[in-house]
């Protein structure tokens, strides 16, 4: 099952997506420029194989809900996200504000 819902961060309304799969749930919250996602995101792939796409993204691990994704510290970020000031350890919500 796929669920989409509006997520408010600061004064911005973003898109939250939850995809329920067997034995796991994929979570993402996106802006027009980038996104944060659960541990399923392969930041290494984005930085290396897909580097020409300049993807702004960040990953938080151990999250099970969109609310947890917003509050969790980021575990890793893409090179493009770093160029915006997004760094591991900041919360998902802080990163999203830099992506809007």
What does this protein look like?
The protein is an alpha+beta fold. The chain has one domain (2-99): Hypothetical protein Ta1206 fold (2-Layer Sandwich). The chain is built from four helices and six strands. It has helices spanning 43-47, 66-71, 79-82, 92-99; strands at 2-9, 12-21, 24-30, 34-37, 56-59, 76-77. A six-stranded mixed β-sheet has the order 1-2-3-4-5-6. A hairpin with a 2-residue loop joins strand 1 (2-9) and strand 2. 31% of the residues are buried. The model has no long low-confidence stretch (mean pLDDT 97). This is DUF1805 domain-containing protein. InterPro entries: DUF1805 (IPR014931), YunC_sf (IPR036493).
Structural class: alpha+beta
Beta-strand percentage?
Answer: 35-45%
Oligomer: single chain
CATH architecture: 2-Layer Sandwich
Name the shape in a single word.
globular
Task: Report on the biggest sheet.
Answer: 6 strands, mixed
Task: Give the secondary structure arrangement, pairings included.
Layout: E1 2-9, E2 12-21, E3 24-30, E4 34-37, H1 43-47, E5 56-59, H2 66-71, E6 76-77, H3 79-82, H4 92-99
Parallel strand pairs: 4-5
Antiparallel strand pairs: 1-2, 2-3, 3-4, 5-6
């Amino acid at each position: 099952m796929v669920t989409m819902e509006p997520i408010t961060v600061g004064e911005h309304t973003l898109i939250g997506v939850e995809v329920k799969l067997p034995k796991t749930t994929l979570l993402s919250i996106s802006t027009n420029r980038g996104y944060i996602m659960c541990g399923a995101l392969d930041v290494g792939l984005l930085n290396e194989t897909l580097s020409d796409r300049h993807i702004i993204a960040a990953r938080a691990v151990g999250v099970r809900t969109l609310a947890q994704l917003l509050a969790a510290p980021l575990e890793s970020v893409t090179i493009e996200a770093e160029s915006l000031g997004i760094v591991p350890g900041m919360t998902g919500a802080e990163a999203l504000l830099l992506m809007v």
